[in-house]
Amino acid sequence: MNSRGLWLRAGGFAAATLLIALFGAWLLFGRGRSPIQTDLLAMLPATERNPLAEVAAQRLAHANGDRVILLVANTDDDRAENAARELGHALGNDPVFASVTAELPPFDLQQLAAPYLSHRFVLLTDADRNAIEQPGYNPAQALAQHMNEPFVTGVGTRLQDDPFGWLQHWLDQQPWSRSPLVPEDNLLTAHRDGTSYVLVTATLNGSSYDDAIQQRALSAIDQAEKAIQHDQPGTRMLRTGALFYATAARAGAERDVHRVGWISTLGIGLLLLGIFRSPGPLLLAFLSTGVGIVAATTVSVLVFGQIYLLTLVFGAALLGEAVDYSIQYLSARANAGHAWEARTGLRQVRPALLLALGTSLLGYLLLGLVPFSALRQMACFAMTGMTVACLSVFWLLPALLQRPAKPISATSVRCALVLQNTVSRVASGWRGAALALFLLCLAIPGWYQLHHDDDVHLLVAPPAALAAQEAQIRDITGLGNGTQFYLVQGADEEQVLQREEALEQRLQDMVDAGRLQGWLGLAGMVPSLQRQHANQDALTPWFAEPDRMHQWLSSAGFRADDIERWVQAWPGTPLELQAWLKTPIATPFRYLWMGNGAASLVLPQGDAGSAWLQKAAAGLPGVTLVDKPASISDLFGRYRRYASVWLLAAILLIAPVFGWRYGLGDVPRVLAPPVLGIGFTLSMLGYLHQPLTLFHWMALMLVLGVGANYAVFLREGEPHVSHRPGAMYASVLLSAITALLSFGLLALSSMPALRDFGLTLLLGIGFTALLVPTSVPRRMLSS
């Protein structure tokens, strides 16, 4: 191909790149919404075998996704209340919030009991029903006891409507009666350790994961917080909600992208400038890498419809591997001197680049087989970026690099030659065997210290301040978390409620034993018809003799018309679930009923272990404990256990390719650097007491691919630099250092998963780069 042909091909490639870039810009910025996904839950795979359980988990996770919970605290009651009113007014005037609840409309707590009066005879606590069924039960004594009980300050009944206190006792067990938050001056208030806490809630006018919504909402909350702290001295505000976690995740990812991207770019730039002694190679190397990253971003958004923060940070680190292809071509040009010819140079590096690309794609392909959308997107991103970066070397760089270049820095070549000869000499003969035995003895203790930790919480690290505030809000308000819940299913509503009652009896036993704080379920608010009939049957003997009931109430001082009204109300009507769900008091609890089937949710409250919660559901038909974090952790553990098999499979797949190229006898030699690098990395992780996760094993697969690339580069390139010993290994070390400057910097990420990824690659690539000279027989090395 002549020079004109090179330019035509380069022009076509540049035009295609421009179109991809424009299409990518439209996908990212031209559709009115950002495709950057900050919802960490969206990255997690489906884990529940029961499809309805998966739906329930997602529903519960996003039930309060757009809600902001604020708790205003002050040691002075009046200041706390004034601050809450001021905060509610300020947020309510901002259109970013669809609704804000601070001050409640005036209402009479006693009126909340009114809807239950017609059902009073079917709503009994277990304690009252058991007492009534006892042979020695004395209604007159129970009546006197209730009349002497303290005045009810919460949701209560009038004495003439509930003379024996049966309905009052049942109401006292309801969630709205047990909550530490009580209405005071029309504000929901809790008191703890001399401090008053007032609840303010707000619902966003959009998604918590929308960047524009995040910025506007946070700005409004921060301004309002400063204002109330100024107007009401001593006020502080606790906050929790998906808004704050999503914002923190986005900010952390942006810091990681900037840190990894800028430091690696600067480091790689200075390194290339020092090695090639000209800004031209530096710009072309970044051009090739930039083309790959633009294409990778576009394809990822096109395929997945969104791009995760994890992928963005990973993409910033991709520079270190994508730049390898252009480095090899630039090195071939620098080593050729005045004899350089672009097409000949391309033919020289093509086999090595294609072989290296194939091994890398194989490693990322295995990564993409994991049923975890974030890893699949990372694999898609990497495979696209690697392929396009390699194609840019074939179709773009030859046209731009037709002139000879300065040779690689003599100092770097000399240093590389010394290291290459040292490693090759030490690793051969009896010295090599003795060194191998010594390193094995050194590695074994590290391997013995290896252990695993599959906890999904290692995927992210929420800011400690936010986590502490959420825990404090939960403790003060009594709000539970929705990461663990029971799914109760049945043939119809009645069976669901009966099964839920059986579960709640076991949960109550856990509460009595101090293992659980409480629970939230519909059966406690709407008993099954079977339970309601049993309650009514327990009272029937006492209403069968109206004259005796009149006598007891008359002796207690009740008026005749109140007595008659009470007796005439018997037997009342059953409380039906669907009718109750339509009442205002049911509004906060409607999400507990799965509207698309006969199923309900029961939420345990407190910090009971998963084993105890599982035990509570054991043997109960239709009851399933859904523990989303535990399910995902189990999934990670399962695939982490498979990872060693995948790693072995990757080695077995690469071996025939190397055997075809270099002969079966040389396969162990070529594979030795990455395989030994993996072994030494595992040993170091053991010494560092790093618990192995799925992300460590995924990184080890990339160590295999990258290490195999280095072996291929050295093996393929060494015959072409016999006139300049050490030059080829210098280019391999250059590739390794650029990878360490990008992937290795992930070890500084704020995301634990990426830290694991980065540390493993830092160790693995470092060990492999040092061992690469052993992949080439000493007779082939120029010295």
From TrEMBL:
Record key words, sorted: Cell membrane, Membrane, Transmembrane, Transmembrane helix
Source domain of life: Bacteria
Ranges where the Membrane transport protein MMPL domain occurs: 198-401
Pfam families, per database record: MMPL
Membrane topology (UniProt): Multi-pass membrane protein
Chief site of localization: membrane
Membrane-spanning parts: 6-29, 260-276, 282-304, 352-375, 381-401, 643-663, 694-714, 726-751, 757-776
InterPro entries on file: MMPL_dom, Mycobact_MmpL
One annotated Gene Ontology cellular component of this protein: plasma membrane
UniProt-listed Gene3D superfamilies: Multidrug efflux transporter AcrB transmembrane domain (1.20.1640.10)
Subcellular location(s) of the protein: Cell membrane
Keyword Transmembrane helix carried by entry: yes
Name of protein: Membrane transport protein MMPL domain-containing protein
